[in-house]
Write a structure and sequence with these properties.
Blueprint (H helix, E strand, L loop, with lengths): L4 E6 L5 H8 L8 E6 L1 H9 L5 E5 L10 E10 L6 E5 L8 E5 L4 H14 L4 E5 L3 H6 L3 E5 H7 L6 E4 H9 L3 E8 L7 H14 L1 H11 L4 H11 L1 E3 L2 H17 L11
Parallel strand pairs: 1-2, 1-3, 6-7, 6-8
Antiparallel strand pairs: 3-10, 4-10, 4-11, 5-8, 5-9
Helix pairs in contact: 1-7, 3-6, 8-9
């Protein structure tokens, strides 16, 4: 008997709609084992061949040889997203150090790109886990992502800058945070099952939302607004253009990192 197809998905609230069917053990024409991990770990595991399919931070894609992108599904936004924030003690144009959560990949690159191109600063990135207060003890600003950003937004008393909103204002394009990617070992039917996983979430939305809200410690109203209005999961030409533009600009500035490398 062949080994189950190994699938890993991002552990944050924003990924839940893409992962709902897999978590519910949706039937598939192949056996699979599903688990969740932080974004950087998802990229590392696909690059190392430990999984056959992964929800991968976009910035990690160029560093994963042989990865095949599923172009129709991902995590995207067309404006402010509220879960990718720079929280700062001082104006962004004065930053010298930036604490970056160690789980970050795409958001870390986006932060450095925007700070360089829009504010003309190149703060030293300091990879750090922990709370916002812990990050800000050692740096002028902190890049805060995912569930933690949703929990602290509007409550810090400091400057809070939404990076997805800044990207939209700068380029006029959507921003794509993560996409499904596979190795050659993934079965041909994976893309169809991934689409069915999202469809499962859409069909059971009202049942799943309260569970997701509680599991991620995000208020129910905030979780609904976040998942229904700020994010979307089917990618078209505009999203692909936004993704390619991000990768082009980040590569030009030398900010892309390979899986396994420090976020900074």
């Amino acid at each position: 008997m062949s080994e189950p197809v190994a699938i890993v998905g991002v552990s944050y609230l924003n990924a839940n709609p893409l992962l709902a069917g897999f978590e519910a053990a949706l039937p598939a024409p192949f056996s699979y084992a599903f688990r969740r991990a932080e974004p950087a770990t998802c990229a590392d595991q696909l690059a190392a061949g430990r999984v056959d399919a992964s929800l991968v931070p976009v910035a990690a894609l160029p560093g994963i040889p042989g990865a095949q992108l599923l172009p129709g599904l991902g995590i995207a936004t067309r404006g402010p997203v509220t879960s990718v924030l720079i929280i700062a003690h001082k104006p962004l144009g004065e930053l010298q150090t930036l604490a970056v959560h160690s789980a970050s990949r795409t958001s870390a690159v986006l932060a450095r790109l925007l700070l360089a191109e829009r504010w003309g600063v190149y703060p030293l990135p300091l990879p750090r886990p922990g709370s916002v207060n812990e990050m800000l003890r050692e740096a002028d600003a902190a890049l805060v992502i995912g569930d933690l950003a949703l929990q602290v937004r509007g409550r810090t008393g400091l400057l809070e800058v939404d990076l997805a909103g800044e990207w939209r204002e700068w380029t006029g394009l959507p921003f794509v945070f993560a996409v499904w990617a596979t190795r050659p070992s993934a079965p041909a039917g994976f893309a169809e099952v991934a689409e069915r996983s999202l469809a499962f979430a859409e069909q059971h939305w009202e049942e799943l939302l309260p569970r997701w809200s509680a599991a991620h410690d995000v208020a129910a109203a905030e979780a609904r607004t976040y998942l229904q209005e700020r994010l979307y999961y089917r990618l078209g030409e505009d999203e692909r253009a936004g993704m390619q533009e991000f990768l082009r600009r980040a590569e030009r500035c030398g900010f892309l990192v390979s899986p396994g490398a420090p976020a900074g």
